[in-house]
From TrEMBL:
It holds the Pfam family VanY. Keywords: Carboxypeptidase, Hydrolase, Protease. Residues 33-94 form the D-alanyl-D-alanine carboxypeptidase-like core domain. GO terms for biological process: proteolysis. Gene3D superfamilies: 3.30.1380.10. This is D-alanyl-D-alanine carboxypeptidase. It comes from Ruminiclostridium cellobioparum subsp. termitidis CT1112. The keyword Hydrolase applies. One of its GO terms (molecular function) is carboxypeptidase activity. The keyword Protease applies. InterPro entries: VanY-like_core_dom, Zn_M74/Hedgehog-like.
Amino acid sequence: MKIIPGKFPEEKDIEKYISFVSDESRNCSLVFLRRLAAFARDNGHKMTGIIGRRSSIKQQQLWDADLKKNKGRPSEKVARPFTSWHEFGCAVDLDGDY
């Protein structure tokens, strides 16, 4: 799902609507996080267990594990390294209702 600019007025109190699994995963684009928090706010939810930014090394590890799990074929659930929006701080993995 993409956050459409202007559709959700930015929420400045990010922590009220989003909680991360680690400090590393919170290093996302501030504008992106404010829009994501606004989406949660406007839909009456708190997003928990968020994994956001990750290094290209971590993305490579996830890619390799996905290939291994699927006998060398990508599942299409994990982006190729250097193409994931996670590496740029503009994507999150969600749990729960999302």
